[in-house]
Amino acid sequence: MDNLKEIQEKLDAIYDEYKQNKYKLNAEKTKEVAQLLAGLTFDNDASISDIASRLSMFPADTSKFYFDMIAKNESADIELLDEVMEELLKSVKKANKPQTYLQKLVSAASAIMKNCKDKALTSVQLPQFVVYAANCAAKTKSYGEKFRSLADSTKGRIFALDYSAFERSALFNVWKAASTLSSEEYKPLVIEWGNKYGFETAKYAANQTVTDLTNGKTATDEKTAPISDKKAENISSANDMTLKELYASMKEDIAKEKDAVIKAVESVIAPMQNEINKYRFAKADEQSAEIQAVKQSLASAEAENAELKKQIEALEAKNSELDKSLNNAYEINRHEIAFEANKLRSELKSSFSLLYEDWLEYEFSDVSEINYESLQAIIKKVFRALDRNGIDYKGNNK
User: Quick check: pTM over 0.85?
Assistant: First the structure.
């Protein structure tokens, strides 16, 4: 959890720098953001919604680097990628100008189609990306180039995705955008896609644009030689009948072939998927047990740490009281010593003042037996005064 918080704080700091730099981010920082988000993707405590939201906030190259890293990681399956793409598309649609985020989706789809190969064709969210890109292209001509970039970067493999979950009306803008593509490399995929989902592909097959996205004219409107209305009506009617019959036959064949392929694939995939699910659930249970054990260890360590903290606080409080008591005792002792010293000084002064007067009387007198006795008496009184006041002057001579 601490690692998750640290990564989120780093991402917040880089985003602040990104805003302050007028929404510009160098390649090194862009890759760093992608690496941090890729790390979060495999963190059980991280939110996929938060990861997708942060992807939508940073430059489009962030999505490219991020999905490159995730798609190349062996631990990532298409379901995980779909989960991230779903949340990313939600974030983009919530934006005030969702079309401005189109390049992020183009970068994501291109990276996944490039790295996941055939696995990408089973994606549920990639068709959603394509439909969204086509809807944007229908609104603004400049976004038609984004759709073209998506088709070119995937070499037309976006038309090999499964769009069966969509109504035909929802796919109209996809066909409208697809009909403007001119690449011979993936033209057969576009035609097959148009036929599969019920669109008239004859004009596109003949290199004629179905409908220009900006002015509603076809590419051959101004080049076609004028013919009579009746003749044109007959030709059109005949072509329509032929195309309808051809389309019905192709549609029926494709449906049969599709059903046969689906059944064959399902019969192979089902056992494999069961084994994969068993392994995934076993790993999930194992990881859950490990996580639970770690959480319990952490809880125990935190409880022990809290108890030690209480003991330390109690010892610190006790130490503080002892310091206070010691300081008080020291102050009292200092005052007592000072008082005793003053008292001793006063008593010595009182005792020696009279003896000093006696001494002055004999200090310069001639030496005699009487003077000697007097001086001897004075000296004895001095020593008695010292004894009386508890002063040890004898040392080791006792």
Answer: no
